[in-house]
Amino acid sequence: MPRSAVILCSLLAAASAPAAEKTYDLVVYGGTSAGVTAAVEAARAGRSVILVSPERHLGGLTSGGLGWTDTGRKEVIGGLAREFYHRVWRHYQDDAAWRWQKREEYGDKGQGTAAIDGEKRTMWIFEPHAAEKVFDSMIAEANVPVVREAWLDRTGGVAKKNGRIRAITTLDGKTYRGRMFIDATYEGDLMAAAGVGYTVGRESSQTYGEQFNGVQKDVRHHGHSFPDGVSPFVKPGDRSSGLLPRVSPEPPGENGAGDRRVQAYCFRMCLTDAEENRLPFPKPEGYDPGQYELLLRVFSTGWRETFSKFDPIPNHKTDTNNHGPFSTDNIGFNYDYPDASYERRREIIAEHERYQKGLMYFLANDPRVPDDVRQPMRRWGLAKDEFTDNGNWPHQIYVREARRMLGVYVMTEHDCLCRLETPESVGMGSYTMDSHHVQRYVTEDGFVQNEGDVGVSPPYPYMISYGSLTPKKGECENLLVPVCLSSSHIAFGSIRMEPVFMILGQSAAVAAGIALDAVLAVQDVPYPALRERLLERGQVLEWTGPRPARARSFAPFSLEGIVVDNPRAKLTGQWQSSSAKGPFVGSGYLHDGNQGQGEKSALFRAELPRDGKYAVRLAYAPGENRAANTRVIVRHAGGAAELRVDQRKTPPIDGLLIELGVFSFKKSLPAEVEVRNNGANGHVIADAIQWRPVEK
Predict the structure, then answer these.
(1) Which fold has domain 553-693?
(2) What pTM was computed for the model?
(3) 345 contact partners, CB below 8 Å, separation of at least 6
(4) Homologous superfamily of 3-13+22-200+459-536 in CATH?
(5) How far apart are CA 131 and CA 660, in angstroms?
(6) 565 with 675: CB under 8 angstroms?
């Protein structure tokens, strides 16, 4: 064994032997990337700290297969998070790290930018074992004691007095005393056991006045929805034959309604096509090819995007993620995970593993899979040199969301979309508000569809409030929560990125240190002092780059009546999204690119609350290049009315809306407006439709 490895092992061994009955300045619960940065920050600051980890391996998803880093704008990743990516860069500077591939063969493909930034000495794409090595070395060098596979006793393992946690006890009966605590788990178990308020699932769109929260039927931002016409029934088209596996019989709920459903989980698989390092996909125990019948029906439509998210990481490996209508996301099988017992969580994880292993075996071996998918899939397999103590399978399931604290400040889409000034920044996010599908259901037309997929990008990086890391003061005064932080469902879709967790873990530890020194509740930490110390640590707290001028935007909920925005329109043909010119409803509008006349349409369908007359209005952003003869069809109780709209002219109502007329509608009949580009003499704009009730 190399001398460096011996030294590292010695350090790790020493760091794994905590002193008995010691009271630590800081107890960090959770071995995620946030837990590591929190513990390292505290130790480097001279605090006594212990990392109590339910996991055997440190790093969470970052070392668990998510090597294709979801970074957003790398400029706002500072502090220990940037140090992590620098250490990854150092790892791959060693020729010995390139075992299965020459570095020059790997290339430099990253997510939007280069994977290897030589000028900044950072690397953003990496193998799972490389990430774990970096985390372990950071912990060892800081002399942080680590207790692994230590599970909180969630029923009686949190001792509180006068609003403060005094100690936590794990299932093996060991107690860890502390002055400050950080819950860095994906599940928020310490937070919940300490009596801190939280929520699970999606808030309604009305809770925080958000457009993209709650049920999002017909929103199809990422191409992960079923093509039209795919039957969910055992005998296609025959409801009496019953549903195929993995289709819910439950109705999806009304658009904008809240529920307790959470976005789908999966494993981020590390696959390889290096023959010497490849393990063929194993046939899992209990394998049932019938579980994948829906995928065969997707293939029958001509869909061929199986390999689109085999994102390359070094050494002929991938970070393979969900892609398409039926993929690695196990939709609808995780709803009870956030609050579930440990035993029940193990069952859910096992179900996900069985499903995903079965899917890969099915794709590589079932003769019904098209040859142009099955034969290439047989060249792939699990990497023999990854997750070696877990059958080469990731040790961490992708918990995209679980509990979310109801803290001092709730982050919402308004923060992520930079619609307001977020107070007391402790870090920044910049990634798309990304929600994976939440449910798979049967449409009214008798077809299968997914629901919950949303992808909306911030205009520039946004600030994350210190108040989102702190519980309400009456609930707990010495706990910080950098992972299951206070956020709405859709805002968490952006915040939940691993670099952000690292940033917030470090910031939480800095805040805990100030609270310790001044003997304060975490809620009373003076922000000027916190800000100063965070900047000293290299954190980025505000965006100083360009801020694109924002066109005037109207939130759908701010308009009277029933408003259907373009993300809910049923589209025919390829439309392009834009927010270059306003005003518009929501986050932007669609246009046809002034191409494919007669091939494109946008159908807006409303569910009206009652029979009656409604003024129907069309929203569009005007411009000189618009069509002066945009075709619009209004379908109402009396039939259909066809109109032509000059979209070069400024709409008369708030510069946003033009009234198409007053029509009678029945609740039982579809209320539809269709925008088409037949014969258009310019760009056709499809933004939103408003149905405004008219007094009788």
Answers:
(1) Jelly Rolls (2.60.120)
(2) 0.84
(3) 187, 337
(4) FAD/NAD(P)-binding domain (3.50.50.60)
(5) 58
(6) no
